[in-house]
UniProtKB/TrEMBL annotation:
InterPro entries registered for this protein in UniProt: DCK/DGK, Deoxyribonucleoside_kinase, DNK_dom, P-loop_NTPase
Domain Deoxynucleoside kinase: 7-203
Sample GO molecular function, one term: kinase activity
Keywords: Kinase, Transferase
UniProt organism field: Brevibacillus ruminantium
Pfam families: dNK
Record-given protein name: Deoxynucleoside kinase
Length: 211
């Protein structure tokens, strides 16, 4: 069977990492988790977005670039399927919201250079929800750096994600996107919801690996 590269995307707190763990177990996939809280600029960013956004985004980009290089060489090229709790395209979503002036075009040039030739997802799972649901879940997990999360920033981020994903599907019709509305779906705490998600994903997994 061909190895498949699955990525999970959606706004902060939506459940990407939790679902990636479940998919890894259910379909025997190598798990790739993004480096987030090791970022030394994260806390400063939430306190002052304008001041620390470029440093934050460059740290994320360089770390994700190295992770994807390693995953490609050590797993995908060796025939091992992978699920990641992020897609590197998220970098452009965040950058276009947080960077201004000369920083954005500089950043996008670096992004294009680094991502050329990196493995691209064969399947994207997109999780979304209302601002109320997202903020509630962020509050429930109670992480120090997220306690000063700006609600207006999160509202814009959710809108940015929705807009980006619509454009992505038009630009990349060859990449299936499975969308889950998570306001009434809690695959972390309700086993039946998790089973529903796995059943929706299974046909796409099998179709790719057996093609």
């Amino acid at each position: 069977m061909k190895p498949i590269f699955v990525t999970i995307e959606g706004p902060i707190g939506i459940g990407k990492t939790s679902l990636s763990h479940e998919l890894s177990k259910a379909f025997d996939l190598k798990l790739l988790e993004e480096i987030v809280y090791e970022n030394p600029f994260l806390g400063k960013f939430y306190e002052n977005i304008a001041e620390w956004s470029f440093q934050l985004e460059m740290f994320f980009l360089c770390n994700r670039y190295k992770q994807l290089q390693d995953i490609d060489r050590n797993y995908l090229q060796q025939g091992t399927s992978v699920v990641a709790d992020y897609n590197i395209f998220k970098n452009t979503i965040f950058a276009k919201r947080t960077l201004d002036g000369d920083n954005l075009p500089k950043y996008l040039k670096i992004y294009d250079i680094l991502t050329e030739g990196l493995p691209q997802a064969h399947l994207v799972i997109y999780l979304t929800a209302s601002i109320e649901t997202v903020m509630n879940r962020i509050e429930m997990r109670d992480r120090d750096v997220e306690r000063k999360m700006d609600v207006a920033y999160m509202e814009r981020l959710i809108a940015d994600y929705n807009e980006f994903m619509k454009a992505f599907e038009k630009r990349h019709p060859e990449v299936p996107v499975i969308k889950f509305q998570c306001d009434d779906l809690d695959f972390v705490h309700r086993p039946k919801d998790l089973q529903y998600v796995l059943e929706q994903v299974k046909p796409y997994m099998h179709a790719w690996q057996e093609s």
